[in-house]
Design goal:
heterodimer, A: 504 residues, alpha+beta, Arc Repressor Mutant, subunit A, 3 domains, three-stranded antiparallel β-sheet, B: 505 residues, alpha/beta, Amidase signature (AS) enzymes
Chain lengths: 504, 505
């Protein structure tokens, strides 16, 4: 594996290429198995539906009965093409299926059909924002993780060791399920970055609909290759954490693994290349096999499958059927609505969220304000109740009305929050809520002027302080006026009036 | 009206004659099936059939009779056939000659078997072969024939002390002995052509991908190809037309070539046909009898108007190491599924999983299969792959290119099928390399994926081998089976070697 281009120089100069943990740099690469959302298996016609009774969804081909042969599922290839297009990869016009030979009871043929030397998807990159620190120390950094490849392969069955006393059961329902194995360069430098990458990748595959993303059912499984080194040193020996099936465990497992490796090195031990499993109960990783036990897979091109040829025309057809991609949509949001790159990225975290935003932006004519409300108040409320945007009690059209009322100065921002509360609790009509709660802003300049005069008169001390150059004193006065107006005054108008009167 | 049946026994009729007799109701499919079942029992000591299910056969025959009666008969309606035990069959056991699959029943029929059944063919039974089609003598079987407790190779009807060739030895023997009018075979490195030559019958291996491999127990996937074995080119053409055709939903390597009537060119003149004669096929090691028969056959072709063209196939010798790298490599992987987990043999007493695998495979596979699994595993291993497998693939391409160069100068290529006639049972069984070397003339055509056939061209005269049949190989360019069959048929119109019958049958 090669190192990232943009960190190469730092590496050469002995400077760290990422945050240090006890003086060590953390290097992470990912291999993700995304189960493709085809109806039937990659090389047979058996169903891929999850949860059926054991061995009821395995046909003669899946069971590797003598005389059976694989036939490629076109839908799986198209999903691989979609993925490649989504992340800017090269779609190989000719890729090769290979056999990975090893014995295991849940591998019916004694080999897995995969791609080895020439994968279907080559290169590409996943981009995302990484947030570190909190509050004033919050740092938002744009990250790029390069992909080496993504290749098509078949899943194995499952061994059931618990269900039978003294014996193991084999369920071949999953055998032959199509997988896209997505492999990165070792570009990640912290567990937080690794999780952010995994979340972004998850977003992409679910957005384009090639994978249901269900991590509990194993539809999206991540393996993390982790190593540590002192800055400027060559890559350390890696250990691979297998089958990370939640973002939470992912971070815990990597953090534990990093601590463990640093301790080993500090204690004078060498890291041995190994495959490890994370135990969520103990929070520890444990080696399941070392390099010495590694099988020789005897890869060779599968003579049962001709080369997979993908014409440019086929790629274009697939492209034509694809929905707008998140990064294209984000770019369009920046161009059409004047959003920042960060806001546009936030709003394209899911297709549902992006759709919600566009509906609200169009209906209100206030894209920026709608964006602020969606990434701010709405996101906070949804998060706190663990709801998705599809489950939001406030519909996009309703939020658009609210935003429009702020924009036309009918209500203030703080009044809008009260309206939002009511909408969240089930109210539907924005104007009715404003009316019922009497939240309309004071548009009567005379009445406002009277309040301003009263407050100036009653707060001589603040006035004096402001005139002496203390800007903060003005805030106190604004607060008093807003309070006296029961929040109906327009804060900007109050500000302007105050400054005019105090200057006079 | 005089019919062939009024003067000759049903088993002496050709496929062509039988199909007509059946269609004309001169004989019923049921009578014919019973006749061949009786002959199989009478000649059980040939040891060819490994599974016969008379009730099933007769039920198929009655159904054929019903279709003939109803006027819905297929082109081969009621024709009895034997299937090599490498094709999986629903109604007969499938063993592939291996202890590993003893008693195995497939839930489906191989595409070739199904297509022949769709054309109306009736299955007499399954016939023995070398284990997983690995061998050229039939001595590598682990399955005892019907009526015997003892595992034994199929016997050559021309001399029962001799091997019938292999791996489709059972198929060749039953056709030569008239225990079936025709049979299916498979050819990976010569397994149709060589036993056809040794048993004095006609067999054709079509272009790789012509016949679906679905339901053939895989030996070497990039080489395996099914084909018919019968007494004449005319009969082979009839069967081949029913066996071939695209099978895109089941076999990705099946060619997208339309179904053909391979009989259509049979009677065309071969005036001006350019027959390439590769000097590498006539070097040292060729027995005098084979050389003499080849010379005579080539002369015969000249008399029929063909022109002999000397050609070069410079990598002929390399085809042996190339084949014995590629075929075992693929076999080692193809046979991994026989692990005792899902079907087939499983050792009785074992400790852990690894022990179960080891004992199951040690007990289930014979020596030749183990030998090839080991060779194949070795050549695919890390550090050896480039030197062996990759190198072999490169030379394979060059061998195919050599043929294309040759076909610029000729239409078909002719030469011996094997350097000698059939040898005695046990003669080479301790010397696997001697067996491998005997494949020299058939391997290159297999590696190139070309169609090839064997036709009877004479009998040995040397005292030790007297009367044993000699076969000539004809190789054609891709998809040129019809021309090969034409060349073979014209030869058979002018000669009677293919009509000779072994004594006692």
């Amino acid at each position: 594996m090669s190192e990232t281009v943009n960190t190469f120089e730092a590496q050469q100069q002995g400077r760290p290429t990422g945050p240090l943990v006890h003086g060590y740099e953390v290097i992470i690469g990912f291999e993700t198995h995304a189960q493709l959302s085809t109806q039937s298996k990659i090389f047979s016609r058996a169903s891929t539906a999850f949860g059926a009774e054991a061995n009821t969804q395995a046909c003669a081909v899946d069971l590797a009965l003598p005389g059976t042969l694989p036939v490629m599922n076109k839908g799986a290839v198209e999903r691989a093409i979609q993925f490649g297009l989504a992340i800017g990869s090269h779609i190989a016009p000719r890729s090769i299926f290979a056999r990975k030979n090893y014995f295991y009871p849940d591998l019916p043929k004694g080999y897995q059909i995969s791609q080895f030397e020439i994968p279907v998807v080559q290169g590409g990159a996943v981009e995302f924002f990484l947030e570190t620190g909190k509050g004033a120390d919050l740092v938002r950094e744009k990250k790029t993780v390069r992909l080496v490849r993504a290749h098509l392969e078949e899943d194995a069955g499952k061994s059931l060791h618990e269900d039978f006393i003294g014996q193991s059961g084999i369920d071949l329902n999953r055998a032959g399920t199509p997988l896209l194995e997505i492999v990165t360069e070792p570009d990640m430098r912290s567990s937080a970055e690794a999780v952010a990458y995994a979340k972004e990748l998850h977003k992409i595959v679910t957005w384009i609909g090639i994978c249901d993303g269900n991590m509990q059912e194993g539809s999206f499984r991540c393996d993390a290759n982790v190593s540590v080194r002192k800055p400027g040193q060559p890559l350390g020996t890696r250990r691979e954490i297998k089958n990370l099936n939640s973002f939470k465990f992912m971070q815990q497992a990597i953090d534990y693994e990093v601590r463990w490796q640093i301790e080993q090195i500090e204690d004078g031990h060498e890291i041995q290349q190994a495959t490890v499993l994370f135990n969520p109960d103990t929070g520890e990783t444990r080696a399941m096999r070392t390099k010495e036990d590694a099988a020789d897979y005897r890869y060779f091109p599968d003579p049962d499958l001709p080369p997979l040829c993908i014409s440019e025309q086929w790629v274009q057809e697939v492209r034509g059927q694809m929905a707008e991609l998140p990064r294209n949509m984000a770019a369009r949001f920046q161009a059409d609505y004047g959003l920042s790159e960060y806001d546009a990225t936030q709003l394209t975290q899911s297709l549902a969220l992006a759709t919600y935003f566009e509906a609200a932006a169009k209906a209100s004519g206030q894209a920026k304000l709608a964006s602020n409300w969606i990434t701010g108040e709405l996101a906070r409320r949804l998060n706190s109740q663990d709801l998705s945007v599809e489950q939001s009690p406030v519909a996009a059209q309703t939020l658009a009305q609210l935003v429009a009322r702020i924009a036309d100065s009918t209500i203030s921002n703080s009044a809008a929050k009260q309206v939002f509360d009511a909408l969240w609790d089930g109210a539907i009509e924005v104007d009715a809520v404003i009316e019922a709660k009497g939240l309309k802003q004071m548009n009567d300049t005379g009445a406002l002027e009277a309040i301003v005069d009263d407050v100036i008169a009653a707060n001589a001390k603040n006035v004096a302080e402001f005139k002496a150059g203390n800007e903060k004193a003005l805030n106190g006065l604004v607060g008093q006026i807003m309070k006296a107006s029961k929040g109906k005054a327009n804060p900007q108008q109050v500000n302007d009036l105050l400054r005019a009167k105090l200057a006079g | 009206m005089t019919t062939p049946l009024s003067t000759r026994a049903p088993h002496d009729l050709s496929v062509q004659e039988l199909v007509h007799a059946l269609a004309d109701k001169q004989i019923s499919a049921t009578e014919l099936a019973q006749h061949f079942l009786d002959r199989s029992t009478a000649h059980a000591d040939l040891g060819a059939y490994v599974d016969v299910q008379a009730d099933t056969t007769l039920a198929q025959a009655r159904a054929a009779d019903a279709r003939i009666g109803a006027g819905t008969a297929g082109p081969l309606e009621g024709l009895p056939l034997a299937h090599k035990d490498i094709f999986v069959t629903r109604d007969f056991a499938t063993t592939a000659g291996s202890r590993m699959l003893k008693g195995y029943h497939s839930p489906f029929d191989a595409t070739v078997v199904r297509k022949l059944a769709d054309a109306g063919a009736v299955t007499i039974g399954k016939v023995n072969c070398d284990e997983f089609a690995m061998g050229s003598s039939n001595e590598n079987t682990a399955i005892a024939p019907v009526g015997s407790e003892t595992v034994q190779p199929v016997r050559n009807p021309w001399d029962t002390a001799r091997i019938p060739g292999g791996s489709s030895g059972g198929s060749a023997a039953v056709v030569a002995a008239r225990l079936a009018p025709a049979a299916t075979g498979t050819d990976t490195g010569g397994s149709i052509r060589q036993p056809a030559a040794f048993c004095g019958i006609t067999g054709i291996k079509p272009t790789y991908g012509r016949a679906s491999r679905y339901g053939m127990v895989a030996f070497a996937s990039s080489l395996d190809q099914a084909g018919p074995m019968a007494r004449s080119a005319e009969d082979c053409a009839l069967l081949l037309s029913a066996m071939c055709g695209p099978d895109p939903d089941r076999d990705s390597t099946s060619l997208d070539a339309p179904t053909e009537n391979f009989s259509r060119k049979l009677n065309d003149s071969i005036e001006g046909l350019r027959i390439g004669v590769p000097k590498e096929f006539f070097g040292e090691g060729l027995s005098d009898d084979v050389r003499t028969a080849m010379d005579a056959a080539l002369k015969q072709y000249e008399q029929l108007g063909a022109k002999l063209v000397p050609i070069a196939l410079p990598r002929t010798e390399l085809s042996i190491p190339v084949y014995y790298i590629i075929a075992p490599a693929e076999a080692s992987s193809n046979l991994s599924r026989f692990d005792g987990v899902k079907f087939g043999h499983r050792a009785k007493d074992y400790g852990d999983l690894a022990d179960m695998y080891k004992k199951t495979r040690a007990e289930g596979f014979g020596d030749e299969v183990k030998r090839r699994i080991m060779i194949g595993t070795y050549v695919l291993s890390h550090g050896y792959y480039d030197a062996y497998y990759l190198q072999a693939q490169k030379i394979r391409r060059m061998i195919a290119d050599d043929f294309q160069n040759a076909f610029k100068e000729c239409d078909v290529i002719a030469g011996p099928v094997a350097p000698t006639v059939a040898w005695k049972i046990g003669e080479k069984s301790d010397d696997p390399v001697a067996n491998y070397l005997a494949d020299i003339f058939t391997l290159s055509g297999s590696l190139a994926g070309l169609p090839g056939m064997s036709i009877p061209v004479g009998f040995a005269k040397a005292a030790a081998d007297k009367g044993l049949p000699i076969g000539m190989q004809l190789l054609g360019n891709y998809l040129d089976e019809a021309r090969l069959l034409n060349a073979a048929h014209r030869f058979q119109l002018a000669t009677d070697y293919h009509l000779a019958k072994p004594a006692g049958f």
